[in-house]
Automatic annotation (TrEMBL):
InterPro entries: Acyl_CoA_acyltransferase (IPR016181), GNAT_dom (IPR000182), N-acetyltransferase (IPR051531). Coiled coil: none annotated. Residues 18-189 form the N-acetyltransferase domain. Transmembrane segments: none annotated. The lineage of its organism: Bacteria, Bacillati, Bacillota, Bacilli, Bacillales. This is GNAT family N-acetyltransferase. It comes from the Bacteria. It comes from Paenibacillus germinis.
């Protein structure tokens, strides 16, 4: 399987209710809004962008990483409303999507709290996993989740991710500089 052409234009993914699209500077205020919610950032290794301008800069850097073939940074919105409500990040652990054999991919995600418990993130992640099967062919996709983040663990396990173990002091919080434990989960594509 080849990634040739995948980076010619940003891949738009749609589901029954959602649109996963490229973010732009007009999304900065929405991005800042949901990252400003302490409930959203409590299980992240940072507190999110500190301002709308920081959000613009972040979106710009994510789009640059896409151009460099290092990241698929999808913004999540409802099909009926272009407001950004979340993100899904899909990236190789090392190197780029062009490196073969493809190294493990990491998935990360956040969602505006007003959309929790509605199946939104499961639907978004199903679309990303289908995209990977069809266009990337990743053998291993992994996620790092804080043990206390029961909702994310539940979503990932529902999609077929298996817990592989607790990684002690695996991440360092960018602001507090404390080391954090995470549960490593992986989805192995055996097809």
């Amino acid at each position: 399987m080849t990634t040739t052409g995948l980076f010619d234009s940003f891949p738009l993914l749609t589901t029954n209710r959602l649109c996963l699209r490229q973010m732009n500077t007009e999304d900065a205020e929405d991005l800042y809004l949901f990252y400003s919610d302490a409930k959203v950032t409590q299980y992240l290794d940072w507190y999110g962008p500190a301002s709308v301008q920081d959000s613009k800069d972040l979106i710009h850097s994510w789009n640059q990483y896409f151009q460099d073939k290092r990241l698929f940074p999808w913004g999540i919105c409802m099909k009926t409303d272009p407001t950004l409500i979340g993100t899904v990040m899909f990236m190789p652990i090392r190197d780029t999507f062009e490196k073969k054999p493809l190294l493990p991919l990491n998935v990360g995600f956040e969602l505006n709290r007003h959309y929790w418990n509605k199946g939104i993130m499961s639907e978004a992640l199903e679309a990303v996993l289908a995209f990977s099967r069809e266009h990337i062919g990743a053998h291993r996709i992994q996620a790092e989740v804080f043990p206390e983040n029961k909702a994310s663990l539940k979503v990932l396990e529902k999609l077929g991710f298996k817990q592989e173990g607790l990684m002690h002091q695996y991440l360092m919080h960018e602001v507090t500089r404390t080391f954090l434990d995470v549960i490593m989960l992986a989805f192995i594509n055996n097809t």
